[in-house]
Every structure is written in C-alpha cells, then in structure tokens.
Fold each of these.
Amino acid sequence: MAQLSSFDIVSQIDLQEVDNAVNQTKKELQTRFDFKGSKSSVEFLKDMKEKKIHLIADDDMKLRNLQDILKMRMASRKISQKALDFKTPEKAFDSCLRQEVILTQGIPQEKAKEIVKIIKNLSVKVQAAIQGDEIRVSSKSKDDLHSVIQHLRTAPLTLPIQFVNFR
C-alpha cells in the first residue's frame, strides 16, 4: 500500500525581516533631501493580535514616496507586497497624513475555502483540509502534489502563500 504524502499551505512573513525593512526605511528618510525638515516617520508596532506599520507624512506626495520606499525595502527583504494591506490615509495632527499598513499572516477562512475549491477543480487525486489558518494537502502520488503546487503558484491569489512540511 502506498504511503500518503502531504504538504501544508501557509501564509507567513518573517517579522524580523519586516523590522529590518522598516529600520532601513527610517534610515533612508533621514538621508533623503525631499524629506529634510519633514515630520514624516515610519513605526513598526508588534502587539499580540495584529502586526502593523504606521506611516506619517506631511502631504500626499510624501506619503506616496514613503509607501514606495517601504515597498522597495520589503521587496529587497523578500517580503511579498500581497502581505501589506494599506488602509486609507487619514488626517493627523498639524495637517499631516497618517496611514496604517496591516501585515497579513495566516489564511483567513474565506480564502482557505477559495484555495480548497481551486485544488478540487484541478482533477487530481488529492485531499485538501483546512486546519486553522493553514491548509494540508495530501495524496498517494507526489507528482499530484507537485502539480497542485505548480498550479497554485500561478493562481491569482490576493495573499502570499508558502508550501511547507512536504513529506
């Protein structure tokens, strides 16, 4: 009898790399000429429930530049842009703009159901089960599992996914 093989689909980001990217963004803010004398800042907040980044800028143009710097630093640290959820900017003190960036981790229930539906429509013999904020895919054939991974890499998903625990 063939042994079952499996892997897990997860959505995780390395918080240390996020912290490094935010610190690099802060350093670049201090050295850029267009941010001289500006009240612009970046702050990484790590609490138990949510991980978020606060952006503060003098005006809309500086906020867009700050977003671009942050995205560039995240990309250089191999953090997917899909993990960053930019909320709408709001007015803050002294005519500044404040924006919250939520870091998404884990696969929400609705997205997990969507991914399982994509897997079931593939017509390969695999079983997909939602386990909390991850999905376990198992099959007797490793080739079927590889075809699922290949298909999900090209699927238009709105969150970053990784494939772990392949056995």
Amino acid sequence: MSMIEATCHCGASRATTTEIPEFLLDCNCSLCRRYKPLWAYYKSDQVSIESEAPLLVYAWGEKRISFHFCPNCHCLLHNSSEAKEGQKRIGINTRMTSPESVNTVRVRKFDGADSWEFVD
C-alpha cells in the first residue's frame, strides 16, 4: 500500500494518508501564490495529523479555509475546510512530501483568485 507522508522541515509535524490523490491542485489565490503549495485533497477521516506541539493556524477573510503550520519551523503542512457538500476536508501540502510519492500525479491549475474554477 502506498503512503503519502508530508513532514515539515524539522520533522515535528506530519500529515499522512494511504490514498494517492486523483490530482494535485495548484492554486493562485492570494495565499497560495505566496506559499506555493501543491494541494492533495482528502476527506478528513482519510488523513492523520501528528505534531509534537499544537500547530499554528491562520484563517483569512471569510475564514472558510484554515492553514496549519509547524510551530517550530513554520512550514505549511496542510489546510482544512468544508467542501460545498458540507464534508470536512484536508488539503495536504505535497511540497512537504518526497517528490517520488506524487511525481506521477497530474497537476491541475485552479483560479482561486477570480473565477474559483479549474483553468486547465
């Protein structure tokens, strides 16, 4: 069974799943264009989050998406939100994984800045 494990730089925080995503999301919203994550989205019960200390959380605007950072090295590990259907979901930042774990997964461009639609 394959596993995706995202770990921060210092190793104190991690997000893991056994599910390979259908695609990775490359967003251009005001936060993602600064952080440059590649998101792999899952239902919240498909992801395990572990951290030696409580993660730092940042939410902006309508606060529908929360960004979670390691409190030690400040790497962006994951985000959490509620999908339109009301299902809680977690986006793992695959930039925190080994490149080999996701290098065959298709990357889709998402316009989070304006249209809130895929643009590929």
Amino acid sequence: MAISHASDLLPGLPFGGRISHLDGNVQDMSQRMRFIVPGLKECESLVPDNEFAHRSSMLTLNGMKLAASAGTAWRARSEQTENHTLVIPCVGHSTIFAAGRPLRAEAGSTAVYLSACARSEEASTRSFMMIDIDPVKLEGVAQAMLGLESEHAPVLDLRSSREVKLQVGRVSFEIVMRQLTTVLDQFLFEPDLLEFSGLDDCFYRQIAVMLKPALFLEQVDFKPDRGFARRKLDHVCQYILARLNQPISLTALEQIGRMSKRSLHYAFQDRFGVTPMQWVRQERLSLARSQLAIATRGTSITALALSCGFTKPARFASYYHQQFGELPSITLARALNR
C-alpha cells in the first residue's frame, strides 16, 4: 500500500493539520517525535512496512511543547527522561508502561500522565496529543487557582505516573482540550499572536483540574470579608490597568490577588457585575476609545487594537460596538474631522 493510500486511513489530528508532516517509515517518524519525547530509543511498526503511515504536527507555545500524532500501530521505548508529559487520546488506544506499571490511554475514557521516568508503549491505529509539562509551573498554577501562598506544600501529585479520567461528572476533558486546540489552530500562521494569546495558561489550568478534580470540587462557596476583599481587588485592578497592552491571564490575577478562582470571580461580580476577564476587556476598550478620540491621520485601527491588548482586530470591532454603540472607525472619523 502506497504511503498516500495508507495515510488516507489515518484518523484526523487533534490540531495542526494544515502544518502537519507525513512520514512513511518508522525511522522518520521517530526522529520527528523526539521533539517531545527526547529519550525515544526504539520504534517498531506493528503493520507491514508498506502499510505504515504517520502524520504529526509539533509546536512550542511560550516554552510549552505540544504534539499531535496520528499513525498506524507501533511499539516504542524511551529511556529515562526528565520530561513530564500528558498523553490525551482522541481516537484508538495505547498501553504505556511506566515504572513497570501498565497505563491505559483510551479515547473517551482515560488519558495518561507520565512523570520523569523511562517508558515503553504499544499502540493501535490512533490519534492523540501530547503536552510537555513544566511541573513547577503547573504546581504554581494550581496553587494560584486555589488562592494558596507560593510557599504552600504541593497540592498536585506530580511524582507518580498514572491514568487520568477524561470524564468527570458531566465534564468531558477530551472535549475541553479539543476546544482549546480549535483555538490553537486559529493562530497557527500567526505565531506572534499565539505567544500573546495566553493559551498556554488555559492549558495549564485545565491540566491542573484534570489531574486532581476533587481538589477543586472541594472548594466551597463563601463570601469573603468585603473590606479585605476590596483591598485585594484594588491591587488586582492596579495590576491590570498597568498592563492593558500585555497578555493578562487568570492565573496571574489569582497570584497577584492571592485569591482563588472562585474568590476572584465573586469579588469582581460583587463590585463590577462582570467576570475578571470581562473587566479587563472593558478597560482595554476604554483605553482604545480614549486613544481614538485623539487620533491623527495615519492612525491604524488594527495597530491600535493590538496596542490595547486585542489579538483579533475583527473581534475588537465587535466588542467596541457592543460597549459604545458605534464602530471604532466612526470614532476615528469623528476625531479626524474636528
């Protein structure tokens, strides 16, 4: 079977189809996969050579490596590594041996978290994504989400490889991750905007919840002391206003305010009637309007939107119209005609 015909039988990639590479032999595939599995040593196809096919897409997002892979059945082994990796199956299944334990990655059922260790794997025809995790950053994100001090004892068990449920209650983390990769695909040909998007923070937040959902479900609603919460919120707002032209993530706001996600949302809703990120958007829009009001000829709305923290100018125009009842071009024209 020719490689083009074999590749027609592969399931789709979870992201990066437009920038993917097609390999027709195990050697080429293993070289490419070392991007995210640097200790990869032995690879063997479990189908005849003329039926082998592997398609992959790799990218780096603010230091976080992501790989999408779809291939025919294979077997592989990697030596001891310092990498921590989350393997999320989208189609098919594989068995990964870590520290002598078999771990099952099966679409719709379980992902596999791999700590720093030697690994081996045997996989059916499948499609999956892999995320290379910085354990220090992940632990910091989890603590920020819970409103804990940075000196707090670790809350995530990142030393042990284990299976991770993809379905918790009514939440499908497979769908959540697919939605994030759909956003990722929108930025594939705009790497500068991708770095600015803060999407890596979204991945880390979801991974933290995936690895220990009970930890976050146990957080109870409460109404904090308003005076204390107001002082914390003032600090968060000052941080936002000083960085409207820069990426701002929920994790950063939680760390600055030393507030859990729930406390932060409650504080913003109680004071402003909006979520934290909605308030960020409102302030960015106000900044853009003030700059448009004093604009001179040659002012670019696209450049102005980017300078105010909006990565999608078309979305900026829609938000602007919703908040002020007119398009930014009208505000600009009025300023230029004075």
